[in-house]
Design brief:
Length: 257
């Protein structure tokens, strides 16, 4: 396993799943640990003060990494958490920046409830996980960047949908069915509520690309993570996670971005 991915995974598994928060955050982070997770302060002590009470109140923790991406200094992890025997189930999407020693120095995340049944009968995490087509990484990242500009940001080209989306598009969003047409209907809604404003992070490895974006839904600001699987230059599958951006007065770190 890549050393950066091993450190990010170990922080999850040893620090949170296994309940050894202090030892893990000290072992797998670098000289700084800048934190963008809601409610978590920067640094080792911020991680410990948040997760030690979490570990105490959720003694049963099933945490699984479903997908991961390594792109230069960045790592992305798509994970599932079941707490206290299913009392709460979450999907977490995490980006990590690393230093020259592969230790974690910055972290962004978006966390949302797990969905067991989408309109087309999927879950919010099932589907392929294998990294393939490593030679297509740069091209696939470019496709996703262009697609967000054309279809999801103001002033784009909505007529370009077939240029980016495959006919058999598989959708894991909890409210949107499979296929191009449901996606087109969302984009063409009168007074469309969702607009993307900024791509904050975009990482890719082979057939998978993940993005963290600043979005607006009905005038409220959200952090949105999207995971795309591509084949032959088209997006064939999509997973997402959305979380409100806290108001400035509630922040304990520099914010979601």
């Amino acid at each position: 396993m890549d050393a950066k991915l091993a450190n990010a995974t170990a922080l999850y598994m040893e620090g949170i799943r296994d309940g050894d928060a202090r030892r893990a955050v000290e072992a797998y982070t670098g000289d700084r640990y800048t934190q963008h997770s809601t409610g978590v302060r920067d640094g080792v002590e911020g991680f410990v003060e948040f997760f030690e009470p979490f570990i105490a109140r959720t003694p049963v923790r099933d945490i699984r990494v479903i997908r991961s991406i390594v792109d230069g200094q960045y790592v992305f992890v798509h994970a599932f958490q079941s707490l206290n025997g299913g009392e709460a189930e979450w999907v977490t999407t995490d980006f990590f920046d690393t230093d020259e020693n592969d230790k974690i120095i910055e972290h962004w995340d978006v966390i949302a409830p797990y969905v067991a049944q989408t309109p087309s009968g999927h879950t919010s995490i099932d589907g392929p996980t294998a990294i393939t087509d490593l030679g297509a990484t740069a091209a696939n990242k470019a496709v996703v960047r262009s697609m967000i500009g054309d279809l999801l940001m103001p002033g784009g080209d909505l007529g370009a949908i077939e240029r980016y989306i495959a006919p058999g598009y598989v959708q894991h969003n909890p409210e949107v069915a499979d296929g191009i047409e449901p996606f087109r209907a969302l984009l063409e809604m009168p007074n469309r509520p969702l607009w993307y404003r900024e791509i904050v992070l975009l990482v890719g490895q082979g057939n998978f690309v993940a993005t963290l974006c600043r979005t607006i839904w009905e005038d409220a600001e959200y952090a949105q993570v999207d995971v795309f699987r591509l084949e032959d230059g088209l997006i064939v599958e999509h997973w997402d996670n959305v979380e409100p951006v806290p108001p400035p007065e509630e922040l304990v770190n520099s914010g979601k971005f």
